[in-house]
Predict the structure.
Amino acid sequence: DVKVTQSSRYLVKRTGEKVFLECVQDMDHENMFWYRQDPGLGLRLIYFSYDVKMKEKGDIPEGYSVSREKKERFSLILESASTNQTSMYLCASSSPSLGNQPQHFGDGTRLSIL
Amino acid sequence: ILNVEQSPQSLHVQEGDSTNFTCSFPSSNFYALHWYRWETAKSPEALFVMTLNGDEKKKGRISATLNTKEGYSYLYIKGSQPEDSATYLCAHSNDYKLSFGAGTTVTVRA
C-alpha cells in the first residue's frame, strides 16, 4: 500500500515564523501535491511537483513556497506565517497521469498560527 | 468560487437505508472524475476514478455513475452502515491537477 507520511498531525506556530511542513511518500511517485482544506471549501491546491526540483504553482500559492530535492520528499514552507494560514494541510502523491490516477493522501497537518 | 459543486452539503441517513448525492463539474476539457472518502482523523481514500461517459463503478455497497456530457456524477450507498459515515469528496480533472468540491458529509444513524 502507498504510504504518505506528514511530519506532524498538529502544529502551533506564531505569526512571522518560518514554518516547514514535510511530506514523504514511499511509492516512487513522480507527482506530489500540497493542499489546504478550510470549512465550506474544497481542497485547494497550493503547489505541486511532477519531478525532482520541479514545481508549479497551484490555485493559492501566495505566502507559500515548496522544495523537492528528493523524489520521495516534498516540503511546504510558510515564509512568514500569518493567521490566515491557519488551516488543515494535506499532502498527496500520484503516479504520472493526466488526472486519471488516484491521489494518495497523508493524514494531514492541522496548523494553527497564533 | 468552486467549479465543482456537491450537493447536499450534508445528509443524515438511517442505518440500512440507501442514499445518493451529486457532483456537478464543467463538461468541457474533461479528463477524469474522482471520488474520495474522508473519514474523521484519517486520510482521504480514493474510491473511484472514472474517465468515460456512462462509466459505472462499484466497490462493495458503494457505486458511482458518470455523465460527462451534462457534467454530473452520482454516488450511491446501498444499505448504509455506521462505517459509511464520512465526507465524500469529488474532484474533476482537465489536466494533471484536480479541482475538488466541498464534499458531502454523510452521517449514518444506528
About this structure: Chain A has a mean pLDDT of 94. The first strand of chain A starts at residue 4 and ends at 6. Chain A touches chain B through 26 residues (CB under 8 Å).
